[in-house]
Amino acid sequence: MRLLVLGGTQFLSHAVAADAVRRGHEVVCANRGQSGRVPPGVTQVRWDRSEPAPDALAEAGPFDAVVDIARQPSHVRHALDAVSDAHWVYVSSISVYADDADPSGPGSGALKTPIAEDVDLATDPEAYGGLKVTCEQLVLDAASSAAVVRPGLIVGPGDPTGRFSYWARRSVATGEVLGPGDPGDLVDVIDVRDLATWLVDLADRRTPGTFDAIGPAVPFADLLRDALPDADVVWVDQEFLSGQGVQPWAGPDSIPLWLPRPEYDGMLAHDAAPAVAAGLVLRPIKDTASDTRAWLESDPAARIDGITTEREAELLAAWKDR
Question: Are 142 and 130 in contact (CB under 8 A)?
C-alpha cells in the first residue's frame, strides 16, 4: 500500500506513519516541516495546508489510502481536491457528539452543529467539535470510500497533553493517592499505538464505516487499580474537589480523567465493541501506564498535566478534616 499521512511529525500521525513503515508500506507524509520529525523511512512533502496542494504531492503519488487528522475544513477541502480517489481514514473525535451525558455512538448519537469555515481554536476551543463534524461530512461526501474514526482520550508514550501522564507518574506510588469523584464513574482511554495500528489496518483493508475509537468503558476504580496497583486510593467526591477549586480534565490545577457527573456521564462511556469487531486490538491499561512512565523518565521535557503531589496531599488532609 502507498499511504499518504497528512502530518506525521506529532503523536498520533507520527505513530501511524511509523507503524505503516514497520509493516513494509510505502509512506509519504505531507506537512509544513516546522515541528517534529517524520519517522525514518518516510518520504516527506512540504505542504502548508492552508494553501492548495503543491505539485510535489501529485508527484509523490498516486496513493492507495490517506490518513488525516485535520481540524480545519479548508485543510480537508484542499486535501480532497488533491486526493479524492484514495480510501480515506479520517480521524475525528467523540467531541462531535452534541450531548456529553449520552453515550450513544455512530448512527444514534446526535452531532453538534457543523462549523463550515475555519476557526482559531486558540481563541475559541469550543468550536472544535463543530469543525470536526464538517470535516467528517466533507470526507464522506467527496472521498471514493472512507472510514471515520472518533477517538476518545488518546494516551501513551509521547502524549503532548500530559493528561494520562499524571496517572502514569503516580503509577509507582505507594500509600494514599487521591481518587477523584465516584469510583463507579465510567472512563475509557485508548493507547496511541493501538489506535495507530488500527488506522493502518483500516487504510490497508479499505474498511468503510464510522466508529468510536475507544478502550472499554470501565469504572474509574478499575482503571486506577490497574494503573496504580500498589497505591491506596482515597476517593474524594466531586463537590468537595470543586469547592477546593480543583478543575476537571485538564490544566495545572486539575485532576485528569475526572469529569463532572452527570453532565459528562456519556463522554467516557461509549461502546468499544463495534471498533473491536472491526479489528481494533487493545492492550492492558497497566502496560500503557508502565510504558508511559518509562517515556516520562527518559524525557525530562515531557509534559505532565494536573495537580502537584503537594497539592494532592493538602486536598487529602482537608478531606479527612472536613
Answer: no
C-alpha cell at 31: 506537512
CA angle 248/251/252 to nearest 5° reads: 115
CATH, domain range 2-151: 3.40.50.720
138 contacts 305 by C-beta, under 8 angstroms: no
Cell numbers found for residue 103: 453515550
Helices (H) and strands (E) in the chain, counts: 11, 15
> In the chain, what are the domain boundaries?
2-151, 163-188+217-269+284-321
Coil, strand, or helix at residue 197? helix
Helix axes 220-227, 163-170, angle to 10 degrees: 60
Over 90: is that where the pLDDT of 34 sits?
A: no
All cell numbers assigned to 275: 471498533
Q: How confident is the model at residue 35 (pLDDT cuts 50, 70, 90)?
A: confident
Paired with 177 in beta bridges are 233
Residue 36, pLDDT > 90, answer: no
Residue whose grid cell is 461509549: 270
Average per-residue pLDDT in the chain?
96
